[in-house]
Amino acid sequence: MNIDKVFIPILFLILLSWGCSGGDNTEPLNPDPEPVWDKSRTVKVSYITDLSGNNPFTVNTYSTIASFLKGSDSHLILLDKSNVRSASPRLNPGASIAVASDRVPLFVSTSRSSDSYIGNTILFSRPLRQMELTQITEDCRLMKTRIELRPGLSMNVATLSFNKEEQIKLASQVLKKEIEQSVLITGTIRRDQLSIFEVTISEILQEGLYNLDIFENSNRDSIYCVYVIGSRKWKFRNGIETSVQNNIKSILLEVEYLK
C-alpha cells in the first residue's frame, strides 16, 4: 500500500472539515443590529444630589438649583436627601426649591432621625393624576406614578431609595411584583450594600428577566450611588452628570421602553 496516497486525501478532508466549521468563536455573518434608540419612548429621571448621604440643600443653594431645574425636561426630578426637619427651626428645602422652580413637590421618606424625616423630594411639572405609596418599613416608602412618554403611551415609574440593609430584604417581594409588571424603578443605595442588593434581586428574579444598571458617577468613592432596574423591556440608554453648585450634581438617566 502506498501510505502517502492514503494520507493526503485524509488530510485534505480534515482541513476541509475544519475550514467549513469556522471554529467555535466565529461571529454570525448577520448579527442582530442594535435597536435604534426611540427617544419618544424614553423616560428621563434627574437626580440633584452629592451622593454623600447628607442633606446638601442649604438656603444659599435654592436659587441656583431652581434656575437649573427651569430648563429641565425630565419626567421626574429627585432632590436626594432633601430632608424635612420636624424640630425647630422647621425646614423643608424641597418645598422651597419647588416654589422657586415652579414645580409640584412630593416628599417620599426613606428613614427618620431624631429631628428629621430623611428622604427625597420628587418634583413634577404638573399635578399628579394618580400616585401610589407602598410601605416597605415604618418610614420607608416606594412611590409609583404613571408617566406620559408621548400621546398614547404612558408607563409606570417608581422610586425607592435605601438607607439600611434591612430595607433591601423587606422590599424584595414588592420589587419582584413591580418589575414583573414592567414598572421601572430607580433610587439611591449605599455602595457598601450594593452587593446585597444584587444578590437579593438574583434570588427573586431569574437571570435574563431584568436589567439592573448602576450609574457610575465621577466620584467613585461616594457613599451612595444611583440604580435603575426594570424588566427586559427597559433599556438604559444614557447617563449624564452635570455640576450644579459646589459638590451638588445633576445626574440625568434616560431609559427606553422597547417595542
What are the defining features of this structure?
alpha+beta; 24% helix; 259 residues; six-stranded mixed β-sheet; Deoxyribonuclease I, Chain A; seven-stranded mixed β-sheet; disordered N terminus
List the helices and strands and how they pair.
Blueprint (H helix, E strand, L loop, with lengths): L2 H19 L20 E8 L12 H8 L6 E4 L4 E2 L7 H9 L2 E9 L3 E9 L6 E5 L5 E10 L2 E7 L5 H6 L1 H9 L3 E7 L3 H11 L5 E6 L8 E8 L2 E12 L2 E10 L2
Parallel strand pairs: 1-2, 8-9
Antiparallel strand pairs: 1-13, 2-5, 3-5, 4-5, 6-7, 7-8, 9-11, 10-11, 12-13
Helix pairs in contact: 2-3
Question: What report would you give on this structure?
Answer:
The chain is an alpha+beta fold and 259 residues long. The protein has a single domain, classed as Deoxyribonuclease I, Chain A. Helix content is 24%, strand content 37%. It contains six helices and 13 strands. The protein has helices at 3-21, 62-69, 93-101, 165-170, 172-180, 194-204; strands at residues 42-49, 76-79, 84-85, 104-112, 116-124, 131-135, 141-150, 153-159, 184-190, 210-215, 224-231, 234-245, 248-257. Strands 1, 2, 3, 4, 5, 12 and 13 form a seven-stranded mixed beta sheet that branches. Strands 6-7-8-9-11-10 form a six-stranded mixed beta sheet, covered by helices on one side. Helix 2 (62-69) crosses helix 3 (93-101). The longest helix has 19 residues, at 3-21. The radius of gyration is 25 Å and the shape is globular. The termini are far apart. The model is unreliable at 1-23 (pLDDT under 50).
